[in-house]
Design goal:
Largest sheet: 5 strands, mixed
Number of helices: 12
Radius of gyration: 23 Å
Strand order of the largest sheet: 4-1-5-12-6
Shape: elongated
Structural class: alpha/beta
Helix content: 40-55%
């Protein structure tokens, strides 16, 4: 048996020696294409989503996701190219699945529906889901002590962003609610402020950002955060690009995870 192993090694060694001698690196075709092109194409939505991506005071894109994408490009030794063709979050899936972008690093929620046509990395952050109520409207239908019970059997109006993960989350988690879709988060917040809807549904970071940006917000709004409903945020990768996905996951393992409060604090002054 020992003789057979030695013989097999002797036959195999001449095959690998030339590759080792020439310094050849064998990699997945998807990674080879990115390195040959010299560009990493990353998709974000056309509408800014601070603190993840937005136009800074210097006129350049800034934010958590922009920093993350820049680090990826630097690690690969290629140029970062940002594409903003996607009007909404669900359109990012089409961009990636069609190959018009290598990745979507765009505060994209990892959902079962989206996973039918793309692959997701491990989440690089996870938020609590939450509801933000118009306090005046809420007082008309539930007392302070009844709010938690009222929320679990919610049958009021619930505002969400159109073509977002929360449009689907709302149908699944609050089937009795009347769902109203808005083109942007700002439009949804304005509708809540005006009393057009009883509440909005999104992640804890966006709710906290609203509360921090509006004077006397505690008098106008009441937030509710869920411990059992979460929103995992991940990088989207084309299904065929398995080596790229593997690389992204290793990259994210080495990144420090930040909370919603930490992200808001770091990027609030830009």
């Amino acid at each position: 048996m020992k003789f057979i192993r030695i013989l097999a090694a002797a036959l195999f060694l001449p095959l690998v020696q030339p590759a080792i001698a020439q310094g050849t690196v064998v990699m997945g075709n998807d990674m080879a294409q990115i390195l040959k092109r010299g560009e990493l194409k990353v998709a974000i939505t056309a509408v800014d989503q601070p603190p993840f991506y937005f136009t800074g005071k210097d006129g350049r894109l800034a934010g958590y996701d922009i920093d993350l994408a820049n680090k990826m490009a630097e690690e690969l030794g290629v140029k970062l190219v940002i594409t903003r063709e996607a009007p909404a979050f669900n359109d990012l899936v089409t961009l990636v699945s069609s190959g018009r972008a290598d990745l979507a690093v765009s505060k994209l929620s990892r959902t079962l529906t989206r996973s039918r046509s793309i692959k997701f990395s491990t989440p690089y952050m996870t938020f609590k889901q939450g509801i933000l109520f118009n306090r005046l409207q809420l007082a008309k239908v539930a007392s302070e002590g009844e709010v938690n019970k009222f929320v679990r059997n919610y049958k009021g109006t619930l505002g969400v962003i159109a073509n977002s993960s929360y449009a689907n989350y709302a149908k699944d988690n609050f089937p009795g609610a009347t769902i109203k879709e808005y083109p942007t988060w700002d439009a949804a917040v304005q509708a809540l402020t005006n009393g057009e809807v009883l509440s909005l549904y999104r992640d804890e970071l966006e709710i906290k950002r609203v509360l921090a940006s509006i004077p006397n917000s505690s008098l106008l709004f009441k937030p509710i955060y869920f411990t059992d409903l979460t929103d995992p945020i991940a990088v989207a990768v084309r299904t065929e690009n398995t080596q790229l996905l593997y690389w992204v996951n290793i990259f994210l393992e080495n990144e420090t995870k930040m909370t919603a409060d930490e992200i808001l604090k770091k990027y609030s002054g830009q």
